[in-house]
What does this fold into?
Amino acid sequence: MHAWPASEVPALPGKGRDLQIHDTATQGTITPAPGPVARIYVCGITPYDATHIGHAATYNAFDLVQRVWLDTKRQVHYVQNVTDVDDPLLERALRDNLDWTELAERETALFREDMTALRMLPPQQYIGAVEAIPGIVPLVERLRDAGAAYELDGDIYFSVESDANFGKVSNLDAEAMRLLSAERGGDPERPGKKNPLDPMLWMAARPGEPSWEGASLGRGRPGWHIECVAIALDHLGMGFDIQGGGSDLAFPHHEMGASHAQVLTGEFPMAKAYVHAGMVALHGEKMSKSKGNLVFVSALRRAGVDPAAIRLALLSHHYRADWEWTDEVLEQAVARLERWRAAVSRPDGLPADALVEEVREALANDLDAPAALAAVDRWVDAQNASDGDDESAPGLVSRTVDALLGVAL
Ligand code: 5CA
Ligand code: ZN
It folds into this structure.
């Protein structure tokens, strides 16, 4: 699949700091990406009800990761998927009497437009589940042939017990895993499974549903977790720097994916850091497709909201926090954007070299975007209240805000 166009990232003077980031697996702060090329896989959308503010907040976090790495003069290899065939997508297509491929294409196109408007850097590989099927089938066959997967009425399940490191991503107890599995696409109640948590790798063709030839697996379609593993291993290989997504993906999705990959390769861990963004709520509840309490990026854009203000609203919360979208959050972002633009539109101003370092430091410290915004606010307030004569300052501030925060002033 094609991704979306890249906005240019201005180079800043000097060099940024290494990113330190919270890792869900070790529950501590780590510094991934020691090499010249940083590798990141971020779970993409299931294309319906896209792009809501929760999605945008999560992709914003991983966009910042890339901007920090780029500022350290590294290259970034970024891969993202689109879950363009899965139960919830098929259910929505059925409900709305749409062809599932049309629904997926329409929503993926909308997502690309929203990502472009928000100046999110595109992945180098943007891969759909459907196009990944030829790579998924041999992985499932290998897991089965190695005794790590078994058949149940034509469906193939992964055996979580085949991975000695199972559980090390999310650090949950058995009961919590069981509850989350039932909530998030698993089927712990299905009789005949070796372990109730075992996830499906390959689902045998069901009447009225799409299916593909799966060689020795028979006709069917892939499970959710193996989709991301196949794409990540194909393009990034094992031991990549960051596996990213919202906190609702830690279990079962990232836990199961890590186990699939670890059993397939005999290596551990799949990713150096598992990084999870907090959940955005609306009216007191997590913004979710199932509840329908959604605010869409495209609806805000249609209403005339500047995408840079949406981005500033996202940046005003720490990526790991759970937070609530309100009109006030957006109003504050709109006002901030106006103040910042006024400050950098002057022909000269207060020196900004220290500000560049403050923004760098804030972001390198577990992506502390609110601290970065506060640093820019301080410069802007002083600038708007004084008559400095540094002619390079306004341009330097614009480039810093653009390069590190993805906001075009
Ligand atoms: N296709 C899978 C990942 S392979 C998927 O989870 N798709 S999704 O469309 O449901 O979500 C896309 C991303 O947005 C995921 O990282 C998810 O964790 C994140 N996300 C979903 N809802 C919210 C929310 N309310 N707040 C923050 N992030 C969210
Ligand atoms: Zn995924």
Notes: Residues 1-409 form a domain with the Rossmann fold fold (CATH 3.40.50.620). The chain is about 45% helix and 15% strand. The mean pLDDT is 97. The pocket of zinc ion (ligand 2) is lined by residues 43, 81, 228, 253 (CB under 6 Å).
